User: Fold this.
Amino acid sequence: MNHFQLFNLPISYPVDTKALDSEYFALQIRYHPDKAQEDSQKLEFLKRSTEINEAYKILKNDQRAASYLLKLHDIDIENESMNYPLPPESLEQIWNDRQELEEAEDITAFLAHKIKERKDLLAMLKDAFEKNAYDKAAIFSIRLKYLDSLISSAR
Assistant:
């Protein structure tokens, strides 16, 4: 069972976070270890609750959800041994972003620009998944990972 099935969600991007939250809380109530009748069931519920929490963390995060969805399509951008290639222009953009952050005099303006860029990137990622353009989605997902890291560093 994949994470989307666990939460009764369609396999799509972006994840419907309202439905995800609703299913997550229902599953947490159902499988809370305190609800177990016996010790063996308590251990089973604890394991299930851990699986639910991990799946929730993945699907709740835009980049991790994209990466997970790509894995379902046999593209593993997280596996360093796969060495998923970024186009030179993406690598250059990542380098330029870091330089821009280091030299930024107005961090607030820099952040506002990068947050808008992130919103645009999420739209492109959604479009790539809708068109089953998984190679493009992989590039956008990697770019999103670096952009999230950059935004986090700037804050």
Q: What stands out?
A: The chain is about 70% helix and 0% strand. Residues 3-60 form a domain with the Helix Hairpins fold (CATH 1.10.287.110).
